[in-house]
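Q: I'm writing a short methods note and want an example of a predicted protein-small molecule complex. Could you take the sequence and the SMILES for zinc ion and return the bound structure as tokens? Please keep the output block clean; save any remarks for afterwards.
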Amino acid sequence: MKIIDSHCDLLLKMSDFPEVEFDHRDERITVSYSRLLEGQVAVQFFAIYLDSAKPYTFDRILTDADNFWRKIIPQPGVDFIRTREDLRKSVNGNKLGAILSLEGVDGLGGSFANLHILHALGLRCLGFTWNNGNWAADGIGEPRGGGFTLAGRKLIRECDKLGIIMDVSHLSENAFWELAELSESPFIASHSNARAICPHRRNLTNEQINAIIARDGRIGITLVPWFVKSASPQISDVLRHIDHICALGGTGQIAIGSDFDGIGEWIPGLEHPGKFGNLVEALLKAFSRKDVEGFLFGNMYRYLETRLPE
Ligand SMILES: [Zn+2]
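A: Understood, no commentary inside the block.
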């Protein structure tokens, strides 16, 4: 069964280990071309994420974008998705579609010129923060728990204008609600689960889930073990989050955002994208084929079909 995965951190690994190639099966990386093929991944979001070990600079963002362009896009069998037409062609041609996203705008340094350059390089999805606060907004781990700054509010308008998909995973709750008020577009949580099932701050409250459903946004169920269950999570626990969001009326808004290469521990049976078949198998035992197809592929496909630029 085809899968669209709305979050992975392979680009972070590629900046940590410059010798790593996309087609390598290297112990240090989880996402590789062959594993994505094995798992029948049809579309993969590749996030640019800067860790806090070094200063946040636009140069670091460009280095990650360069790796995306040089190592991932030229791989035979990969299509770069920037438009609706790219999406249709890639999926109909059974290619692996690659979407460029940004996790945290720290490295843009408040510059809209930098945003425009990234957009020209194909950026189509933007998360405002990681857990820390930055020039645009506060993340969920920022003690002051603020919302958007003035510059952050301008950034929301600019994303609306450019058609960049906005991602609320990692945002503070105040910022989430401000975005819900200020943005004209249905946003996504690319990699977050339900807090009612696993009480982690990175997961969404029922109110947040309802707001995403009401706007016809998307929620990428994530495979981060500690966002699934506080101890000994199993594949069946991933299903509990899906079940919960369905009960809130979100059967048509559920998607998948693995966070592979952003984690060093895995749910047994879901250690890399080549193992997505185990998730498919478990889902098919609990949900109708039509619903499962929606969770893994169709829901996000329909969203991208209308949200990507023409
Ligand atoms: Zn993340």
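A: Remarks, as requested: Residues 180 and 211 are 8 Å apart (CA to CA). The longest helix spans residues 289-307.
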